[in-house]
Amino acid sequence: MSETKPLRIALAGLGTVGGGVIRLIDANGDLIARRAGRRIEIVAVSARDRAKDRGGDIARFGWVDDTTKLAEADADVIVELIGGSDGPALALARATLASGKGFVTANKAMIAHHGLELATAAEASRAPLKFEAAVAGGIPVIKGLREGAAANDIARVYGILNGTCNFILSKMEAEGRDFAEVLAEAQALGFAESDPSFDIDGIDAGHKLSILASVAFGTRPAFGAVAASGIRHILAADIAEAAALGYRVRLIGLAEAGPQGLFQRVHAHLVPVDHPLAHVTGATNAVVAEGNFVGRLLFQGAGAGDGPTASAVVADLIDIARGEYGAPYAMPAAELADTLPADSGDRIGRAYVRFTVADKVGVLAEIAAAMRDAGVSIESLIQRGRVGDGSVLVAIVTHEGPERAVAQALERLRGSASLTDTPLWMHILG
Amino acid sequence: MSETKPLRIALAGLGTVGGGVIRLIDANGDLIARRAGRRIEIVAVSARDRAKDRGGDIARFGWVDDTTKLAEADADVIVELIGGSDGPALALARATLASGKGFVTANKAMIAHHGLELATAAEASRAPLKFEAAVAGGIPVIKGLREGAAANDIARVYGILNGTCNFILSKMEAEGRDFAEVLAEAQALGFAESDPSFDIDGIDAGHKLSILASVAFGTRPAFGAVAASGIRHILAADIAEAAALGYRVRLIGLAEAGPQGLFQRVHAHLVPVDHPLAHVTGATNAVVAEGNFVGRLLFQGAGAGDGPTASAVVADLIDIARGEYGAPYAMPAAELADTLPADSGDRIGRAYVRFTVADKVGVLAEIAAAMRDAGVSIESLIQRGRVGDGSVLVAIVTHEGPERAVAQALERLRGSASLTDTPLWMHILG
Asked: Is the Cβ pair B294, A312 closer than 8 Å?
């Protein structure tokens, strides 16, 4: 092996992922040195509480009390695993990149909000900036888009980006149970946070989607333009109805670049059973990219967890150790296009709409009339389920048409005494 | 955009893939320049017959009659799309790398046979050598292993590596038809070669597997140690029996690195329906890598065709244009371990064995006794199908045990008058 100097790492954050990175480098250090041509060595760490027992020997690393000061450590790359879109993580990122040191992070919120600023700073100081672990955990999907699919004009990128939601949806599907019950169980098992809204309302998936979109399309990160809803309002009956129609329900983050602008959404979708995403169950993540020459590429794997996330963090470090890195968003930050958000109303597609209605004469006619008046063509209508309060469920699948029409139909029905709950609208993945 | 000089390419071979590369660079050239920071320009081409009408304008490129001489073209990278493990392709590769120019190829046979020599030459002259398109067409799986999963000790890598076989098997499955019939149809449609043995006997998948194994395990390429059989002897009845047991039949290339050595095989397997590879249909390819931190990663996409293959070739060129490349096998060729092949007899697993037997008294007892005497524990035995000549099919699924025992049982039955055809042994993917 060549006698090249090690790549010296300073690590901010000693939680689950930080611990995973230490364990990984301990376990696979020799192998990594063979692959990278040099060792990767942790030289300093920082975390909130030095005294906390972490079960591993961290006394062998230098300790820095003030996390932001880690940027001044005698290291080549700072690895940030604190989290949070602003605060100490952002201060550390700015200080590190200003100093010309490399910066590797798993922080999707920070990259979604401040990625463009950080990439600009990194390019100005020619410092490596990498964030593979920020999207889809251990899956090398940033690399897959930035490099593997780099020869392609990407039409759209979409996937299952939140493991908690997919875990809940697959469990609802397998056991025929309702959302609230499964969420409570997932929380008890530690698969969902005690405040789960970041996950189940689609914010986390939105962060990841906006990062993917920038890398795929060469557009400026635009997290603010992501339309996100989540899975709170999905009933076991919706999943059963979807199954009867040949679909599975998945929370899909989808970004599309077109002449009308950049379109980004995170919504529950009906996914046809013959689509690979229909077979992604549990906490697994999966991302599809559609390129004009390569066709459909799928990347699938563990979207979270200390091992997979550490794998992605250290893959970034190996790229840096090898000197194989460049502009983080596939092209220089200054060249990213400032694209307007596309209007979802123009999108053509099929929809599933489920109404919760009072069990009385005339309700179906009222719904059908609203659809007709808005120009929505109905492919199928099923009245089947009944919920606790005596309400009845009516599920509609539309023919292809503009989303604007469905929105107008729902607007017409808003406030109707026939509806006992807000309708649930899911797109059908085409 | 920076005024960096273009990356100049000379292209050997103007068949389907060569034409795809030209079309891709024509279509996506501006986008590629934004991503790579410089243009990729074809400056010279070579093919067997200059006069042949290729439907595109190749007069704009320099022409070189003698393909080997293309190495002397005024170019930075030679792209080889001729094919063949030796002959002009190998001569061109050697001449190119000796001259210090970069070399990009889609030639799996050549890399499987001569990859170590070529990597050594490339490293000696510090020239880039890349072959993403040699494995699984458009899927960036070499990159996924070499870089994306580089932090992991990879336990095994396996997948669907031959689109022709998967097309035939999915068609047999969907339509309940036998191999010979579907093959003839695939040949008529151009999905299979007129001499299909390279594909259907597992040689092509074996080439790809041996390349994947080297990249994943850091072992020397050892195509000669790949045990390969194909799909010729699979009956529609085998696929139906597998389905009844909860499996789909797929041709799987699998490599595993363990203390007993390097294990590489290409055989038809029974894949559980809840495994992602069970849902890969048609000509699609898919590769799974299992790492000690990342867990199971899946890469899926088009395994062949001009567009996908061109996508991978040009992705390699973009890496080179960006200066983001290094040792082709993830570590320097001199460090690749010279690992002995592992003995398949030691492998523990479950097996499906189908016997074609005469419809007479005592046959089941004879088979059961051979299994017992070899120490094979039977999980299920089904006698169901009947083939044209009046023979009966007996399908056995074994409990977990060493493959040696199954081999011994089959050895005991060899030459038995009860068997009217050679038994078919398929491994069950665990």
From this structure: yes
Structure tokens at A81: 């695993």
B138–A147 C-beta distance less than 8 A: no
Strand pairing class (B129-130; B261-272)? unpaired
Residue ranges and CATH numbers for the domains of chain B are 7-134 (3.40.50.720), 141-302 (3.30.360.10), 345-428 (3.30.70.260)
Q: Which ipTM did the prediction report?
A: 0.96
pLDDT tens across A311-360, in order? Answer: 999 999 999 999 999 999 999 999 999 999 999 999 999 999 999 999 99
From its phi and psi, is residue B386 left (phi > 0), alpha (psi between -120 and 50) or beta? beta
Q: Which two structure tokens, joined as six digits, stand for B56?
A: 């595109």
Label the pairing between strands A261-272 and A247-258.
Answer: antiparallel
Question: Do residue A138 and residue B311 have CB atoms under 8 angstroms apart?
Answer: no
User: pLDDT, tens digit, for every residue of B20-60?
Assistant: 999 999 999 999 999 999 999 999 999 988 888 776 688 99
Tell me whether residue A208 is one of the annotated catalytic residues.
yes
A279-319 tens-digit pLDDT: 999 999 999 999 999 999 999 999 999 999 999 999 999 99
SS3 call for B231: coil
> For B337, which residue in chain A has the nearest alpha carbon?
A34
B190 Rama sector, left if φ>0, alpha if ψ -120 to 50, beta otherwise: left
Q: What is each CA distance from B358 to A139, B52, B353, B418, B420, in whole angstroms?
A: 51, 56, 16, 5, 6
Residues of chain A neighbouring B312 (CB-CB closer than 8 A): 151, 294
Q: Which amino acid is at B128?
A: P
**Residue A142 with chain B: CB contacts under 8 Å:** none
Confidence of residue A3 (pLDDT cuts 50, 70, 90): low
Alpha-carbon span A200 to A123, nearest angstrom: 35
Which of B299, B324, B326 is closest, CB to CB, to A299? B299
Residue B42 · residue B61 · CB < 8 Å: yes
DSSP state of A279: G
